[in-house]
Each structure stands twice: as C-alpha cells, then as structure tokens.
Design goal:
With 269 residues, this protein is an alpha/beta fold. The chain has helices at 15-26, 48-51, 65-70, 81-94, 107-111, 114-117, 130-145, 168-181, 185-188, 240-252, 263-267; strands at residues 6-10, 31-36, 61-62, 74-77, 97-100, 121-124, 151-158, 189-190, 205-211, 217-225, 228-236, 259-261.
Length: 269
C-alpha cells in the first residue's frame, strides 16, 4: 500500500467521533478524508478542526455520506443502530471497509448487515480495545474450565451519558462465557433484576449495569462459588484506546476479502 488509506468518521461531533478524528489526524498510517454529520447539524459545512475548537484540518463536515465514502478506503462508525444500517449500505456501494463500534444493535439489526458484507469488509465489535478482546478470550477459557457451581455475573460501569445497557462489551463477555459453557446466551441471560426476583437460577449468566459520572468503561466477569470467587477485570481510563483499535481495524481490512470480521480477527487472537 503506497498511499495512506483515506478514513471517514461518522457522527463527527460526538465524543467518540471527535476522538476518532484526532486519532486519524495524529496517525502516520492514515489520512482523514471525510467527516459526516446528520443533515441540519450545526457542524455541517464547517471545517472539522475548527468545529472541534482547533485549527483547520482541510476537511469539511458533510451530511452527504455516500459522497464522502466514495472518496475513502474506510469508514469508522460509532453512531446509532439505525444510522449504522444505513451507512453499511453506502459503505458497501463505495467498497469501503466499514468499521462498526456502534453498540445497542439487536440480533435482527446485526443480521441486516449481511447483504452489505457480500460487497465490502465489515469489522464489527462491541469493544475495539486489545485488553477487552483478551478479556473475552480469557472469559471463554475460564467458563469452559468451571462448572455451574460457579455463578457468572458480568458487571459493567459507564458514564451517565450512555444510553444502552448492558454495554456491547458486557454482551461480548456474556457471549464468551456462554460459548465456554456450550450454551446460548439467550437461554441463560439474567438481567434487569428488580423487586422480589426469587433465588438465582443455576447456570444463569447475570448482568449488572452501573451508570455514573465520567466513567469511560469498566468490566468485571465474576465467577462465584461457595467459598471462592474469581474476578477478571478490565478498566479503561481513556477512550482513545477504542479509537486506536478502530483505526487498526480500518487499516487491517484494506486487503481482506468482503465479509464480516471482528477484533479477534484483527488482533489475531
């Protein structure tokens, strides 16, 4: 690859959007070619750097996603499920790698990515960090080694702006635990406890969500049995780790065949 791949950031004004723009601008392996916001947003028509309160970067924020995608080699997308589904179609038209960090997608929505993946590379993960993806693999191994005498609880904490629960990462960890035990998460998931719930069912995988302050992201996987507990933990203190992981995925996907991939593929875990 002789030329640096061009990257478009969707949801440019958001917390992750701005972090992604900064990460791409600071990279010596990629170049920022586009920034997308919804039609009517105050940033549309402005230089992305100036909109962020800094110096001009020569990229004007646009609401025309297809035009932006057509000039790029990759799209990094941390938006909403509905927006992501629309972007997946446009990225496929442009044959651009589509890196999806959007959380809160239902199984039905994820299934709708299939047509786009026949024409372009899609890398989707509930969490883009190296540490979390290592934690996923460890969770699977520990769950496989322990029987149902050990209750499994996934405990996650995020800032008070987060709108979905459990987090995408928590669900990744729950899926890993279920896979380790040879069961489907949908059959053993226990979340949203409130009131007189009765005793915990043997074999269930529980979820607890904490929301407060400016917590970037903390995830524990608790294996609790009579007389002992094992806790696997990952703590994120800077959301730049997610941006760096997403950029790594965008670069990794440049020479891959069309299809759906995840960060385990990207990191070779």
């Amino acid at each position: 690859m002789t030329r640096k791949p061009g990257i478009v950031i969707t949801g440019a004004s958001g917390r992750m959007g701005q972090m992604l723009i900064k990460t791409v601008l600071e990279s010596d392996k990629a170049r920022l070619t586009g920034a997308v916001e919804r039609e009517g947003h105050a940033w549309v028509g402005r230089d992305a750097g100036e909109a962020m309160g800094g110096a001009p970067v020569g990229v004007t924020v646009t609401s025309d996603a297809l035009e932006a995608f057509s000039k790029a080699q990759a799209v990094i997308d941390f938006t909403s499920p509905e927006a992501t589904l629309n972007f997946s179609k446009l990225a496929a038209q442009a044959r651009a790698v589509h890196v999806i960090g959007t959380t809160g997608m239902t199984n039905a929505q994820i299934a709708q990515l299939e047509p786009a993946s026949r024409h372009a590379v899609i890398v989707r993960a509930g969490n883009m960090s190296l540490g979390v993806n290592l934690l996923v693999q460890l969770t699977k191994k520990v769950a496989a080694a322990l029987d149902e005498d050990f209750d499994i609880e996934v405990i996650e904490a995020h800032h008070h702006h987060k709108v979905d629960a459990p987090s995408g990462t928590a669900l990744m960890l729950g899926e890993a635990a279920a896979e380790g035990r040879g069961v489907h998460l949908s059959d053993v998931r226990d979340s949203g406890r409130d009131g007189i719930t009765g005793a915990r069912k043997r074999g269930d995988i529980g979820f607890t969500a904490i929301r407060g302050g400016d917590i970037v992201g903390e995830h524990d996987v608790l294996f609790a049995a009579a007389g002992e507990r094992i806790v696997l933990r990952h703590m994120a203190t800077d959301r730049a780790i997610f941006a760096r992981g997403a950029l790594k995925a965008a670069l990794w996907g440049q020479d891959k065949a069309a299809g759906q991939y995840d960060m385990v593929d990207v990191l070779g875990l």
